[in-house]
Amino acid sequence: MTLASQDRLPDRGRLPAPASATRVRRGHNGPPWWFVLPALLLFAFVVLAPSARGVYYAFTDWDGLSRDFSFVGLGNFSDMLGDADARQAVWHTLLIAVAITVVQNAVGLALALGVNSAIRSRNLLRVFLFAPAVVTPIVTAYLWRNLLGPDGAVNSLLGAVGLDSWEQDWLGDPDLALWAVVGVVVWQFAGYSMVIFLAGLQSVPKEIHEAAAMDGAGPVRRFWSVTRPLLAPALTINLMLSIIGGIKLFDQVHALTGGGPGHATDTISTLIYKDAFTLGEFGYSIALAVVLTIIVAVASTGQYLLLSRNEKAAS
């Protein structure tokens, strides 16, 4: 009887791994996709399929009721280029989105800097300033519609303090109505931007500010060189939310002015509503909706890429 060679003897202190261990580990590396399959199927049925069908109707002359419609190709989009109301609505949409984004974030940042100080009433002020953001936009719009009317509280207040010359038909003047809408939206959501900026401000270490102050940096210099770069993530979130919300704005415009006077405050969203439910041009309105979707996608993607690059540079 011969003994096995030393290199062939089994290692008694080591348990042999099962042959399928490697296969088991490989099987668990990826996510279990079949768990999310029901949700994906539901999302495709509720969102993707209707959206795809809607895009198809954008190339037809469907009136929203009849089963008979014709395929018109790019006819709706070519009509859009020649439609003065559509071009004006696109311009109003972009103007409102830019104005809301700039003013709302400037006011929100100023409010955040104010309530982040050591004043005693800062907690009460935070609640008070954020409160309008939790009110339904349509309720806020109807409230301000009464306040900004010819006999509303705003004109009454101006008259009471001797500023009769400032009294205006805020929502009936084509030159003022658009900016009145912007003011209402900023009033409601500046507190929302404030909360996001406030979260960013409270994440800035106090030691950095103290070190900058010891080096002789004043408040403005400390904000520009210390606080501003560290607020880049909060700024990215606020700008994204503001620009997307401004482009899709509908509730406030519809409740305040209905797109009027004339077409002075019409946006793409209000024009979609009018063409679909007033004029019965569903194919044309869906084409407008497709254009709105493209604008939102391009604006949000471009803004995200630009802000992400700046955020990485600041960090």
UniProtKB/TrEMBL annotation:
Lineage: Bacteria, Bacillati, Actinomycetota, Actinomycetes, Kitasatosporales
Similarity comment: family membership: Belongs to the binding-protein-dependent transport system permease family.
Gene Ontology BP, a term: transmembrane transport
Location within or outside the cell: Cell membrane
Organism: Streptomyces regalis
Pfam (any one): BPD_transp_1
Gene Ontology CC terms, in alphabetical order: plasma membrane
Membrane topology per record: Multi-pass membrane protein
Keyword Transmembrane set for record: yes
Name this polypeptide is given: Sugar ABC transporter permease
Domain annotation ABC transmembrane type-1: ranges: 90-303
Keyword Aminoacyl-tRNA synthetase: no
Superkingdom to which the source organism belongs: Bacteria
